[in-house]
Specification:
With about 160 residues, the protein is mainly alpha-helical. It has 6 helices and 3 strands; from the N terminus they run ααβααββαα. The model has no long low-confidence stretch (mean pLDDT about 95).
Length: about 160
């Protein structure tokens, strides 16, 4: 792609700005549909990657949802205070912090799931099936090509 100095002059022509704006809209839709459960999208992401019952360390959880270790640690701490996660000791490495979803955490994921799906549908509703497929393909291509440039590479 060839660009010149004037290519990104207007805010509305900057992909980064549009992506940030779309993220803000997604968070608003998620909170609209799921806010009564007092969860953020990142908190729900942590619960989602743990809902399989596996015990995982904070670094792995952070990579699975694409956030930095400090953010993951803070989110995990908050979820543990709500008894949605347990923090078992790691007998192999005392420095490693582990997390495991509790029964209450699993129940909450089940309650929030329908609202999360509604938020996703509301976000993509303006797109045709073909546009949605193209949007997903291009978004995944951009993420794949730029993932390692992130402060928190995503490793699903």
């Amino acid at each position: 792609m060839t660009v010149d100095d004037s290519f990104f002059k207007n805010l509305a022509d900057r992909p980064g700005h549009l992506i940030r704006r779309l993220h803000q809209i997604h968070v608003a839709l998620f909170l609209d549909e799921c806010g009564k459960h007092d969860l953020t999208p990142v908190q729900f992401g942590v619960l989602t990657v743990l809902v399989d019952g596996e015990v995982r360390d904070q670094v792995t959880i952070a990579a699975m949802i694409g956030v930095d270790r400090n953010t993951a640690a803070d989110v995990i701490r908050r979820l543990a205070k709500r008894a949605l996660l347990e923090r078992p000791d790691n007998p192999k490495d005392k420095r490693t912090k582990l997390a495991k979803i509790t029964h209450d955490g699993i129940k909450l994921v089940e309650k929030v799931q329908p609202g999360m799906v509604k938020a996703q549908i509301r976000l993509i509703d303006p797109l045709t099936d073909e546009e949605y497929a193209l949007f997903m393909k291009l978004t995944q291509k951009l993420i794949s090509a730029n993932n390692l440039s992130s402060r928190a590479p995503w490793r699903p």
